[in-house]
Write a structure and sequence with these properties.
The complex is a heterotrimer of chains A (about 350), B (about 375) and C (about 350). With about 350 residues, chain A is mainly α. Chain A is built from 14 helices and no strands. Chain A has one domain: ABC transporter involved in vitamin B12 uptake, BtuC (Orthogonal Bundle). In chain A, helix 3 runs parallel beside helix 9 and helix 9 packs antiparallel against helix 11. The longest helix of chain A is centred in the N-terminal third of the chain and has 35 residues. Chain B is of the alpha/beta class and about 375 residues long. Chain B folds into two domains: about 210 residues, Nitrogenase molybdenum iron protein domain (Rossmann fold, 3-Layer(aba) Sandwich); about 140 residues, Rossmann fold, CATH 3.40.50. Chain B is built from 14 helices and 18 strands. Chain B is globular and about 65 Å long. The N and C termini of chain B lie far apart (about 65 Å). The N terminus of chain B is likely disordered. Classes of the chains: A mainly alpha (about 350), B alpha/beta (about 375), C alpha/beta (about 350). Chains A and B meet through helix 3, helix 5, helix 6 and helix 8 of A and helix 11 and helix 12 of B.
Chain lengths: ~350, ~375, ~350
């Protein structure tokens, strides 16, 4: 949308953008392979290549590579890209550089769903001989929680004109659900409490291929919706009033963006637990690197950068060695917070949204 | 008051005199347990509980028991005087119920902590007819209710020093608290030996000694038999969840059981008690070498285990149906008898384990506490 | 490029009442009823005191705010019956809202104006790019196309915003205070552009402003919002009918029909006669009135000023109360005379 009739300056910009994408793609591939080669079990890199190409058939290592590392790497890519894109959407719609995918409280809703199962109804599950720690139980309850919050937000966004009000309400929903979760935690036994805490630290390595398929479907649906919103997001750069005068149906636009964000971030939270900071930090890095506000470029840029960041986080989380693993949430925070601080300090015009 | 002091000094005096004397046949009778000292001096028994919670280091609680005391009372922060036999007790842990049940003194229990965990049938019936009260636990201990119950003694346990708050509060209310540190014992027989502590409160010391000796003899016999088994199958314990190795209870206790049952405990080199994050692929690699998989959390069936992570289905212990859990005896709310009556039946637990690891040694044994996961 | 459905470009307001609906459902009528009309290629300025509802009126006409009562007819079609996307091709809006977006170049901002015409991904076609380029030329910003918007001066930025509205290619362009925050030359620039748009491109321009003098000079018609009524007419008509006085009812200013300008109401305590070199007479009279001396042509007054030109420079001679003083500048003259006012 925002391209110009060719001038020499413009083609220089295009060249730069293209080169950046190429560079990012290369880094992505390198990190993906690195992630496959990193792990608690020592597998030599040459073996990895061999296993991937089919040359090697070592059973144990094959299982570890294809059943553990590959799904984990794919999950990292999905999580990083989904969270970054939804973070970008939130920042544009709310014109707030500190907005992230959890700003609508969707992630908090997912946590509530999981908390209710693990902390609230744990007894029910035990009595009726059901496994409350089963993955699908958690995923469904998280989705239910996220969906509920989405419904609430949609209802509100259709009635409230001011986008700032919606932002505040979303944040308050998040706080309210967190408070409720705290109550559940207070009354819980130690064992289930620990189980919930571990869940809330996020983890990328728990998905089997079946679950990965479902997650991927959700993410693809979310991304398709995002494609529909690219043009609207560009119009929203001028603010909602101008967008309205340009013919944007604000209610529809908000709904589309909220739906896409909820599906993206809700799915990731459901399958991996809450993951922080990726959604806030990556869009800023994308803007600074590509020096544009055009969502046509920023969305794929955030997608790539998000995947890169998440792969990096996954590699770093395994650094302690001897099988010890750092929780994903902490690593993304450690990587993401300096970025956010740098954005705030270096970019003094904090009011801008892109 | 004065009378109490006289009696008190009498007791201590005699104890001191006897300390160097040859009477300490009493202390000889404690063969396994390390968490308490047991001294008889005349008609007074002094039980000293040592380091009753993790990292207690040097904390000592002294309990003086005698039927000659006019009443129970609190001497100071670390010392109590209990008039025996006690008629009215509150147990804050289900293992305490196990001990008291073994002594057939269940009727004396007027309060427990967490009704859903209680397996003992008699006690459950009394709970349902409100003859026994649930006094809550940890921060939510119902002190008012405890006051109302006016127990002769409250048997308590502590995970860490925060239990001192409870002790102080109860002491202020004039209720004697007895710290039971059986869960810190590493050997199964040491654990069971705390029976003698409970027995002292009911004046059933001899009865307990006899019962304990017979269990110990049986246990030792089984252990020796298992030693001669020939092979030592490797055993994996616990259930990893989302990349964290999730272990409940005392690791070493189960380790001892497994070693005594003629198995090789895979976790030997990783010596810790609670939960620890570990990369799933490392878990998997570890688990690959296990012949048997025991105590996988709360799982009651193979599908429970599979639901947590499908990849467990590839493990040899899963495929070969060598998956066993110690939750065979459960009440309707999920309370596990392993942590109640199991504490006084280490010989049966050992038999279960020997049957699992070396079935040919006990061909006619029927599993009690352990179940095979189907 | 022009919308076929809006050929007559006539905007008619019938019994329009504008205002707000509160959350409780209560109505607050800010202004109304209004009955006026906008014709094709007209440039109309809306004047009114702050808070009277100029912006509300603009936004209601643009369809950004719901009307409380009455009708807004675009070529005899009720505007509520026109879908939002079609409206975007009929009316474009430039507000006072500051666009605070980094990394947005001028050409990108103008291109956003093509939103109603581009496809799902917003890709610009060749005709689209041509329109963007034309818009930038008409507003004189074509040399700034690659510059980031936040690096522009206020005047340049305002022109870019107008370019965006132009790129939207609507027959009607509505602007809210287009000259606010601009320095004087920039103000004239903007209004000249708007004038050109109305005369040459045949666009209908509706704008609000506080700049009465400039509006009177440029607009075909003015809408004056005062004492609950909306008066419309050519600036001169409104002067004749003394409509402007309604704007200045309680203010220290008044409209001077002789000089066609607004000036402070001043109570003149003294009188002074000014005679001499005609070149400087009017200016001197103005200065006198500024310090409270009414300038009369004939008659007896205590103060007499004679202005003459000596060596191409003006000089003032003041006679009063038997004194005769000479001054080289109006400043010195007024400084002295101030002592007597």
């Amino acid at each position: 949308m925002i391209t110009n009739a060719g001038t020499s300056l413009d083609s220089a910009v295009r060249m730069r953008t293209a080169l950046l994408f190429l560079l990012l793609a290369v880094i992505f591939i390198i990190l993906f392979l690195t992630d496959l080669m990193t792990g608690a079990v020592k597998i030599p890199a040459s073996e990895i290549i061999g296993l991937l190409s089919g040359a090697s058939q070592d059973k144990v290592w094959k299982t570890i590579l294809f059943d553990f590392r590959l799904p984990k790497a794919i999950t990292a890519v999905l999580a990083g890209s989904a969270l970054s894109v939804s973070g970008l959407q939130m920042q544009t719609v709310f014109r707030n550089p500190l907005a992230g995918p959890d700003v609508l409280g969707v992630s908090a809703g997912a946590s509530l769903g999981v908390a209710l199962v693990i902390l609230g109804f744990g007894d029910f599950f035990i009595i009726h001989n059901l496994s409350y720690l089963g993955n699908w139980t958690l995923i469904l309850s998280a989705w239910a929680g996220a969906g509920l919050v989405l419904l609430l937000i949609t209802f509100i966004s259709l009635r409230v004109r001011d986008i700032m009000t919606i932002l505040i309400l979303g944040i308050l929903f998040g706080s309210a659900t967190s408070a409720f979760v705290s109550i559940l935690q207070y009354f819980s036994q130690q064992s289930v409490l620990k189980a919930f805490v571990i869940w809330s630290m996020g983890s990328l390595g728990n998905l089997t291929y079946d679950q990965l398929r479902v997650l991927a479907t959700g993410i693809v649906v979310g991304f398709l919706l995002t494609l529909l919103t690219i043009k609207i997001l560009n119009a929203l750069l001028l603010g909602e009033n101008y967008s309205r005068s340009l013919g944007v149906n604000i209610k529809q636009a908000r709904f589309l963006v909220f739906l896409s964000t909820s599906i993206l971030s809700g799915s990731i939270t459901a399958f991996c637990g809450p993951i922080a900071f990726v959604g806030i930090a990556v869009p800023h890095v994308a803007r600074l690197l590509f020096r544009t506000a055009n969502h046509f470029i920023l969305i794929p840029a955030s997608l790539l950068l998000g995947s890169v960041l998440m792969l990096m986080a996954d590699v770093i989380s395994q650094i302690p060695g001897s099988g010890l693993l750092l929780p994903v949430n902490s690593v993304t925070a450690i990587l993401g917070i300096p970025v956010v601080i740098w954005v705030i300090i270096y970019n003094r015009r904090l009011v801008s949204i892109s | 008051m004065l009378l109490c002091c006289i009696v008190f000094t009498q007791c201590i005096g005699k104890a001191d005199k006897r300390h160097n004397g040859p009477d300490s046949a009493a202390t000889d009778t404690i063969r396994y347990a390390r968490g308490f000292n047991y001294r008889e001096s005349g008609n007074c028994i002094v039980i000293t509980v040592k380091d009753p919670w993790q990292q207690a280091n040097g904390i000592r609680y002294h309990y003086m028991l005698s039927d000659t005391f006019p009443a129970s009372g609190i001497v100071d922060e670390f010392t109590c005087r209990i008039k025996t036999p006690v008629k009215n007790v509150v147990c804050l842990s289900t293992t305490h119920i196990g001990f008291i049940g073994f002594l057939e003194q269940t009727a004396s229990v007027t309060g427990i902590s967490g009704r859903s965990y209680v397996v003992n049938e008699t006690l459950r019936a009394r709970l349902d007819s409100n003859l026994v009260a649930d006094v809550g636990y940890d921060e939510n201990l119902n002190y008012e209710l405890l006051l109302k119950l006016k127990p002769d003694v409250v048997f308590a346990y502590g995970i860490n020093s925060s239990v001192t708050n409870t002790i102080i509060k109860l002491t202020e209310l004039g209720i004697p608290v007895v710290m039971i540190g059986e869960y810190l014992e590493k050997e199964p027989l040491a654990k069971m030996e705390w029976l003698k502590v409970f027995a002292a409160f009911y004046d059933l010391e001899e009865d307990a000694a006899v019962k304990f000796d017979s269990v110990a003899t049986r246990y030792e016999g089984l252990r020796h038999m298992a030693l001669k088994a020939g092979n030592k199958p490797s055993v994996l314990l616990g259930l990893p969840w989302r990349g964290t190795w999730y272990v409940s209870g005392s690791q070493s206790y189960v380790a001892h059981l497994i070693t005594d049952a003629g198995g090789k405990y895979l976790w030997e080199h990783l010596d810790y008690n609670e939960s620890r994050p570990m990369a799933l692929e490392k878990v998997y690699e570890f688990a690959l070498s296990a012949d048997f998989w025991l105590n996988p959390g709360e799982a009651r069936s193979k599908s429970d285990v599979l639901a947590v992570d499908e990849r467990f289905g590839k493990l040899p212990s899963y495929k070969n149906d060598k998956l066993f859990n110690n939750n065979n005896v459960l009440n309707s709310a999920g309370g596990n008898a392993f942590f109640e009556s199991g504490v006084v039946e280490p010989d049966i637990i050992l038999s279960d384990l020997i049957y699992i690891l070396h079935p040919q040694l006990l061909p006619s044994h029927k599993l009690k506490y352990y179940r095979k996961l189907q | 490029m022009e919308s076929k459905t809006f050929s007559k470009q006539r905007v008619k307001l019938v019994d329009l009442r504008i205002g707000y609906r509160t959350a409780m459902g209560k109505e607050r009528v800010v202004f109304g009823p209004i009955n006026v009309e906008l014709s094709k290629a007209e440039m109309v300025g809306i004047i009114g005191r702050n808070g009277i509802g100029k912006s509300t009126l603009l936004r209601t006409i643009a369809g950004l705010q719901p009307r409380l009562d009455g009708k807004i007819l675009l070529d005899d079609t009720d505007n509520t019956k026109i879908p939002v996307k079609e409206m975007a091709k009929l009316i474009s809006f430039v507000s006072t809202e500051a666009v605070i977006t980094e990394h947005l170049t001028v050409s990108e901002l103008i291109a956003i104006g093509r939103f109603p015409y581009t496809g799902w991904f917003g890709k610009l076609s060749q005709p689209d790019l041509k329109i963007v380029h034309e818009a930038s030329e008409l507003t004189g910003v074509s040399h700034l196309m690659q510059k980031p918007v936040h690096e522009l001066s206020d005047g340049e930025r305002q022109r870019v915003m107008i370019a965006r509205a132009l790129a939207q290619d609507t027959p009607v362009i509505i602007l809210d205070e287009p000259t606010a925050f601009l320095d004087l030359p920039a103000r004239y620039e903007i209004l000249r552009i708007l004038n050109d748009l109305s005369m040459v491109q045949q666009k209908t321009i509706l704008f609000t402003t506080h700049d009465l003098a400039i509006a009177m000079d440029a607009a075909d018609k003015l809408w004056i919002m005062a004492d609950g009524n909306l008066y419309q007419g050519a600036p001169e008509d409104l002067l004749i009918n003394k409509v402007f006085h309604k704007l200045f009812l309680n203010s220290p200013a008044e409209f001077d029909s002789k000089t066609f300008s607004f000036r402070f109401r001043r109570a003149c305590k003294n009188e002074v006669t000014v005679s001499g070199e005609s070149k400087y007479r009017l200016l001197t009279k103005k200065a006198m009135e500024r310090i409270g001396f009414l300038a009369i042509d004939e008659g007896a007054s205590h103060f007499k000023i004679y202005v003459e030109e000596i060596n191409d420079a003006p000089a003032w001679q003041l006679h009063h109360h038997d004194k005769c003083l000479h001054f080289g500048s109006i400043y010195d003259l007024t400084k002295y005379l101030k002592n007597f006012s």
